[in-house]
Write a structure and sequence with these properties.
Radius of gyration: 19 Å
Helix content: over 70%
Number of helices: 12
Shape: globular
Oligomer: single chain
Largest sheet: 2 strands, antiparallel
Strand order of the largest sheet: 1-2
Number of domains: 1
Strand content: under 5%
Structural class: mainly alpha
Length: 326
């Protein structure tokens, strides 16, 4: 299958299925309502990320049909995606316990880990993969709060992974195109949200790509943290802050830096653009050090994260005080 046909397949399935998800959500009154724990001001349908899920599953079927990837491996990858997207789809209809969702995500991580590495006896990579799935699924869920943010970041991260690890280019470009096909429905004006099915799909797909890319890059795999740094830093520092404050950290909120910026008066498009620029610079830095020694690559990654973390604290303090909040 040519690259052009491969990408058209993902774009068409994602776009058509997102439109059908929009029709379904409107008929079922499946909407997110505005509130104190939301960053939008009008009722908006959710669950549109199902289109991305369907596009990736269609790609898995084609990959199996043309024998591009072993059927057993594809079955594990697709099975994990169905678990994550399925529990997200159910949660979009009726809220589930956070612990139930986490348990299913961990199961999906184990299934993916076995298919990607465990069956070949690469237990170190398998362990990394098993942990990566629930981490990135929840990071993308936490950070999916304003128009276009989660989708543009997933697109850019996928492209960054493809640039750093050419061996995963087809899979990474497929995700990037599927996510991009959803974007017109969500940005700059949101006609539909990703929902848990969509944010879960993006997180799981990026965990799959990250696992494969890490195995390809070996000791230089720390560079893969750079494209993910915007979301990893905001999600983890906000979560830590809420835990230390004794808040119910598993509940929805609007205290991530990107949400604080919106409350400070910046528009969704502006905040999304800033995060996009940050990640673009991180990817350029990663590629610049892709030919360096593992030690130098690790040092560059450490310095970038240190500077980004310091910036997060500075920006959060500035905008929080400006809002009159504590």
């Amino acid at each position: 299958m040519t690259l052009a046909a491969w990408l058209v397949l993902h774009a068409l399935v994602s776009g058509v299925m997102t439109w059908l998800a929009l029709v379904y959500a409107r008929r079922r009154n499946l909407v997110d309502l505005p509130g104190e724990r939301r960053s939008h001001s009008v009722p908006t349908p959710r669950g549109g990320g199902l289109g991305i899920t369907c596009a990736l599953l269609a790609g898995y079927l084609v990959a199996t049909a043309v024998s591009a990837v072993p059927a057993g491996k594809v079955a594990c990858i697709a099975g994990g995606l169905v678990l994550v997207a399925g529990i997200g789809w159910i949660d979009d209809h009726r809220p589930l316990s956070a612990w139930v969702r986490l348990a299913v995500q961990c199961l999906a991580g184990v299934l993916l880990a076995w298919g990607m590495h465990g069956a070949d006896g690469r237990w170190g990579w398998a362990l990394l993969t098993a942990g990566l799935v629930p981490v990135l699924v929840n990071v993308w869920n936490f950070m999916d709060g304003i128009n276009g943010l989660a989708t543009t970041q997933a697109t850019l991260v996928a492209l960054g992974f493809a640039w750093l690890a050419p061996g995963i280019a087809y899979a990474a470009l497929a995700l990037a195109v599927a996510a991009a096909a959803f974007l017109p429905f969500n940005f700059p004006r949101a006609r539909i949200f990703l929902g848990d099915v969509g944010s879960g799909t993006l997180g799981y797909a990026l965990a799959t790509l990250g696992s494969a890319a890490a195995a390809e890059l070996a000791w230089s795999a720390t560079l893969l943290l750079l494209p993910l740094s915007a979301f990893l830093i905001d999600a983890s520092l906000t979560l830590g802050r809420r835990i230390l404050a004794g808040e119910r950290w598993w509940q929805p909120h609007t205290s991530h830096l990107y949400q604080v910026c919106v409350k400070a008066g910046f528009g969704h498009s502006s905040v999304t653009a800033v995060y996009l620029l940050f990640s673009l610079l991180a990817i350029i830095l990663a590629f610049a050090f892709s030919g360096a020694s593992p030690g130098l690559a690790g040092t560059a990654t450490f310095v970038w994260f240190a500077c980004a973390i310091a910036s997060w604290f500075w920006l959060r303090g500035r905008f929080t005080l400006g809002n009159g909040n504590t």
